[in-house]
Write a structure and sequence with these properties.
alpha+beta, Fructose-1,6-Bisphosphatase, Chain A, domain 1, D-Maltodextrin-Binding Protein, domain 2, 2 domains, seven-stranded mixed beta sheet, 8 helices
């Protein structure tokens, strides 16, 4: 497969975010998509900017963006050629409201696998990235998930309750298994914060491939542990939403998946 240097990709994404996102932060009109989610002009501008730069740099890969029509996304996701998978603004509600927790997420998909991932937070100027050759990186420095040394009841969990089964959400509230819980509002950035040790557990009931592909790849490359609520690998090259269960080290992962009654990983 052709070489796609992370430094070149970082340059493309950083320049696009600085040009299209930061000047519009908390100063854009929000719209609603058919599924009820938020859309802003920044999503569209960033997607257009990045797709043009990627196509100019590497003509071969196809391009799949979150803000494309679903029929077009479906035709692209199963392609035999490499596919860029972009979420131009993960955390749009935060962005439009003025909450400084959002990012750009880019993954390269090929042969049923994620080949590389890059997540850029323009507010903190943090670029998380990973490929098979270099492993996980944060602003170019090696990134390894720090072991927590914590029991389940001492851990901090990043949990999106909105997309969980009602019975599971109720159980988490009435029989709290961890010490503290947060919900920040950006799937891709959540994965990267876990990789950096800014949280210990993760649970999401339903995210799309452009939300999680890059972030979960970076987290895994950094040494984290994850699966779906069904005990399957988190990534699949498909549009269907996926659940995710994760922890920063093996003991926590085993305790967390046991509490959630996750089947042994297949």
């Amino acid at each position: 497969m052709q070489d796609y240097p992370l430094t070149t990709l970082q340059d493309i994404i950083v320049k696009a975010a600085r040009a299209e996102l930061l000047p519009r932060f908390a100063a854009v009109r929000r719209m609603r998509k058919a599924d009820g989610s938020v859309l802003t002009e920044a999503d569209l501008a960033l997607q257009s900017h990045v797709s043009a730069r990627l196509r100019a740099q590497w003509p071969e890969p196809l391009f799949l963006g979150e803000e494309m029509a679903q029929a077009e996304q479906q035709a692209l996701i199963g392609a035999s050629r490499p596919v860029w998978c972009l979420d131009p603004l993960d955390g749009t509600s935060n962005f439009a409201t003025g909450i400084p927790y959002f990012c750009v997420s880019l993954a390269l998909l090929h042969a049923g696998k994620v080949q590389l991932g890059l997540v850029y937070d323009p507010v903190r100027d943090e670029c998380f990235a990973a490929d098979a050759r270099q492993g996980a990186l944060l602003n170019g420095a090696p990134l390894v998930v720090p072991p927590s040394g914590l029991a389940l009841e001492q851990a901090t969990a990043l949990v999106d309750f909105k997309r969980l089964d009602k019975a599971l959400a109720t159980r988490l509230v009435t029989a709290v298994p961890y010490a503290s819980q947060r919900s920040f509002g950006s799937v891709a950035l959540d994965w990267c914060w876990l990789a950096a040790g800014r949280g210990h557990l993760y649970l999401h009931g339903r995210s799309r491939v452009w939300d999680y592909a890059a972030g979960q790849f970076i987290f895994a490359a950094a040494g984290g542990h994850a699966c779906t609520l069904q005990g399957e690998p988190v990534f699949t090259q498909a549009l269907a939403p996926r659940s995710a269960v994760a922890a920063v080290d093996r003991p926590l992962f085993e305790a967390w998946t046991a509490w959630l009654d996750v089947p042994p990983r297949r």
